[in-house]
Amino acid sequence: MGTMPDSREMTPSCHATISMGNRPTCTRPLPTSSARIVGESGWFRTRKAITARHSNSTPTSRTQMRVAGPAATPFASSSRSGSSVAKSPTPRAMHPVTVNHVVRVMTPRCLRHGGRSMTSPGHRARGAVRYARAMTGQLFPALLRYWRQRRGLSQLELSLETDVSARHISYLESNRARPGEEMVLRLLSVLGAPLRAQNQALVAAGYEPRFAEPALEALAPEIDAAIAQMMRQHEPFPLVALSLDGTLVRSNEAATRVFSAFLAEPQAMPATPDMFSLLFDPRLLRPFVVDWETLARGMTFRLHRERLLTGDARLNDTLERVLAYPGVPKAWRQPDFSQDPQPLVRVELAREGLRVAFLVTVTVFSAPQQVTLDELRIESCFPLDDQTREVCLQLARR
C-alpha cells in the first residue's frame, strides 16, 4: 500500500485517494484534464493533470494513483506551512510526481490573472477601477440616447445638426467609441440639455464637470450685486428669485409685505417656501386667488413642460406634491400641449376689500456658464392698475 502500482495494472478509470493527516481518507474522481487536491485550505483545481509516464511507453492520459498514508503521498498537506515533495521511494517505472506537476499556483483557476492572485488588495483595486470604467462607459450612451429621443431626433438628424457622422453617433450610443470632452458638450448643447445635465454627461463620459454649481450666496460679487439692485429698483412691487423647482431663494421686501397680507394661515408658511405651495396650499394664498383654477392649471402645465425639457428629478417630486393637493383635477396629471406657454401671467388677489392685480414676467440669465444661474428665475410683478399701485405704496409706508 505504500508504493505505486505497476503500470500494467492501471485501468482507464482514474481516482486519487489522499490522506489529510488526522482526517479520514477520501476518494475523489480524477478528471482527465485536471486533478483536485485536498489540503488545509480546501480543494484546488490544478492547471495540468497529474499524469505518470512509463519510461518505455507513450504517455497515458488517464492514470490511477493509490496512496494509503502520509508517508507515501507525493506531497504533504497536513502542515499549514505549505506542500512539500515526499521522500518515499518511487518505482523506476514511474516519474516522480512533483509540486510543479501538481500545483503551479495554489489559487483557484477562476481567480488567476497574469500569474497574480486576484484576491490580492492591488488586484481588487484594479478590478474596481475596471468595473467603474465599464459602468461609466455604459452611462454616457444611455444619457445620449435619452436626450436624443426626448428631442425626437433620429441619429441621422442629430448628425446633420452637430456635423458628426451618423456612424460615430451610433458607435457612441452602442459604447463602441469613447467621446471627447468637446464632443460631449457639442452633442448635449445641440440637444438643448440644461447645464446640470451637461455636467452629468461629462461625468458619465469620464470627465470633470465643466459648469460650476455654487450656492446663490457664493455667486460672483457683480452678479449678486446685479440681483440685489434689481430687487431694490423694483420696490414697492414684489420681485422674487426662484430656483428651477420653484423654491424661493431670494425676494425683496415688497414681496414679503404684499403676499403676507393674503395668507390664510401665516403660521402654515413652510420654512423653505416655494411658489407652488403658496398657490396650491389652501392655508396660504389659494383662498384669495381670483380665478384660481385658470392660474393653477397654467402653472401645472408649465411644471410639466419644465420637467420634460430638463429631465430634472426634483421636478418629478414637485409635480407629485402639487398634484396631491386637494381640489386638483386628475386631468392635470397629463401635460396639455394644445396650450402655448404664456410668457406673461396675470395674478389677482382679493381679500376683504384689499385687492391687487399684477402682470408677472419671468427673467432668465442667458449663457451664464453656471448651473445656479442657468436655473435661476427672476419673477417681477408689475401693477396692472392704479389701485394696485396705491395698495403697494400704502403697504410700504407702514
Automatic annotation (TrEMBL):
Domain HTH cro/C1-type: 144-198
Gene3D superfamilies: 3.30.450.180, lambda repressor-like DNA-binding domains
Domain of life: Bacteria
UniProt cross-references to SUPFAM superfamilies, sorted A to Z: lambda repressor-like DNA-binding domains (SSF47413)
Region described as Disordered: 1-31, 72-92
Pfam families: HTH_3, MLTR_LBD
Regions of compositional bias (Low complexity) in chain numbering: 77-88
GO molecular function ontology, one term from the record: DNA binding
Polar residues bias: start-end ranges: 14-31
Protein name per Swiss-Prot or TrEMBL: XRE family transcriptional regulator
Organism expressing this protein natively: Corallococcus terminator
